Amino acid sequence: MKQQLATHTIAVLVQDQPGVLQRVSGLFGRRGFNINSITVGSSEEPGLSRMIITTSGDDAMIEQIQKQLYKLIDVIQVRVISASPMVARELALINVSALPAQRPEIMGVVDTFRASVIDIGPSSIIIQAVGDSDKVEAMIELLKPYGIREVSRTGTTAMLREGQQLRMEERQRQPRAQEQLPRTREQSPQQTSQMQPNAQAPQTTSAERSLA
Length: 212
Hints:
Largest sheet: 5 strands, antiparallel
Low-confidence stretches: 171-202, 206-212
Mean pLDDT: 81
Number of strands: 9
CATH architecture of the largest domain: 2-Layer Sandwich
């Protein structure tokens, strides 16, 4: 039996530049990592956006995802926030077939999940549900017998609880490998002397020989 992989939530702080989303999602595709959902929006700092990515994998796979994301020049910070206490929410719009005789039952489901009806038509209603992914999934399952016409989900957005929020001063890039220039090999004194021209011995004159 295949072991079910755990779901992880990753917060990625990136430069707000064109093509960043494509580069991040492309990295997941090239490396064979699955994206369950991804949301992108402006962060508290101008010029920076925050992506919330949910993916499935073991600890080794999540560590590899972090390392690969840090290789992208636009990535400022990567945090696996599901490893700490966090708040996660998802919004879903559900279009359900609802004849007049069925609507009281459907409203019972809506009230149970603290959802709301945002549009009513002659033969259907649109329900807005907000909560974690498990809550949204459970509500969709209960509405299936009535006939679901369409579902639109935002994906998970999340934030660490108080005392563990992502702060700008805590952002640190993972150290990137820097190439060191090759050092020049020092020459030994013997090698230095060999490179210099041979010095000629001074010649002794006849007068100097007679004095000697």
